[in-house]
Amino acid sequence: MAIKTRSYCVDGKRVMTIDEFKRWLKKFDEDKDGKISRDELADAVRASGGWFARRKSKYGIRSVDDNGNGLVDDNEIKNLADFAEKHLNVRILHL
Predict the structure, then answer these.
(1) C-alpha to C-alpha distances, 33 to 4, 40, 79, nearest whole angstrom
(2) Fewer CB within 10 A of the end CB, N or C, for the chain?
(3) Predicted pLDDT at 61
(4) Is pLDDT above 50 for 2?
(5) Is 76 helix (H, G, I), strand (E, B) or coil?
(6) pTM of the full structure
(7) Cβ-based neighbour number of residue 20 at 10 Å
(8) Which of 32, 57, 61, 33 has its CA nearest to residue 45?
């Protein structure tokens, strides 16, 4: 099932709310543990058309993982949304 986002900006960035971003990420959570691993984030980067998915996912996890467990959980999702806006061609609407 495809997850629809609101639209694309003039600059080509995918626009979505934080809830849409969470739902989009959830489809990459292969082990269904509610957390995003580096490999799962790499899959998300690839799906969004990003280059250097492994490098970006490694950097992304390192940048947003506050508790140091190597995973992005619900408490760190805001940090990942900020990272996605800067590095993954996504714009998050904070409604």
Answers:
(1) 23, 11, 19
(2) N
(3) 93
(4) no
(5) helix
(6) 0.79
(7) 17
(8) 57
